[in-house]
Amino acid sequence: MTILEQTKKLLSLWEQPDYRYRQILHAVFRERVSKFRDMTALPKGLRQSLEEELGEGVLTLRPVGESRSGQADKLLFELEDGGRVEAVRLHYKKGWESFCISSQCGCSFGCKFCATGAMGRKRDLTAWEIVDQLLYFYLRGCRLDSVSFMGMGEPLANPHVFEALRLLTAPELFGLSQRRITISTVGVPLGIRRLTLEFPQVNLAYSLHAPCSELREKLMPVEKRWPMEQIFPLLNAHIRRTNRRVFLAYILLKNRNDSPAHAQKLVRLLRGNLRELPLYHVDLIPYNKASHAGELFVPPEPQQVREFLRVLRQGGVSCSARTQFGTDISAACGQLCAERKAN
Length: 343
Ligand code: SF4
Fold this sequence. Notes:
Layout: H1 3-13, H2 19-29, H3 44-54, E1 62-69, E2 72-78, E3 84-91, E4 97-100, E5 104-106, H4 115-119, E6 121-124, H5 127-139, E7 146-149, H6 160-169, E8 181-185, H7 189-198, E9 203-207, H8 213-219, H9 222-225, H10 228-242, E10 246-252, H11 260-271, E11 280-286, H12 302-314, E12 318-321
Parallel strand pairs: 4-7, 7-8, 8-9, 9-10, 10-11, 11-12
Antiparallel strand pairs: 1-2, 2-3, 3-4, 5-6
The chain binds iron/sulfur cluster (SF4).
Iron/sulfur cluster (SF4) is lined by residues 107, 109-111, 114, 116-117, 152-154, 186.
């Protein structure tokens, strides 16, 4: 149980009025106060009791390492049971701050190019463990302009993610607009349906990474269980219901899936969904070397990325190539593994 959950329980055990917990939430989320002793709206005795029972502050996750590089900071957190997860803060020159958070400790999906997948799944994070990653940055004064579930784990395989979305969007807590949040998934049918119904304005990104089932299966074992032909109808339904863009993440791996022929195949695949095509956007991600993969996968040549984009655009597909930050501290896509203490 996280500190804030324990706080609520203790207040009720001590028969404190309901508004005490609201005062604590107000101190944390409006005034960015992290320590019980500084929550001056509470009686002194109560502040002391909370500190004696729960320790100084409201954060449950313990930061145990931080790496910094240009526009990316990577935080390594330790969970109560000793498990470790990572979160990344990206800060842009114009002041925009974007956060990439983890939803699971490890991951069971085993995508071949992903360092988290090589760890195997340890466990799902609870809703508060997910949002605590952001609370850490928030209490340090960061602006939470956008948040993506693209860190460790498959978010839609963890049912607690829906509660985390509620906490992130609750006006009395973070108060984030759904449109500032992105869920990235390898395609978990039940989770996609639930997201469409319960959080229709949250951005949805599908990790495609291949233009056909045969190749996808080699890179992502999930294709056997939930093939793309089962997922596209759900994405189309999401577009029709929400009228929102769906992002298709495509990691470019040299000589594996990055040729013009692959790009043409991708155009044909997407043109099979003509009605929804204008609301699909392909997000190309040049591969970042991951510690577990050795020389198995190699980043594409810049010329190859440009050519891929050209073919997609010529085929009438909306697309862009992502600029990566933090590759030198293993903070970019596919590199998170909480393997060691960050520097
Ligand atoms: S890419 Fe996502 S789903 Fe695949 S192994 Fe990595 S964390 Fe898991």
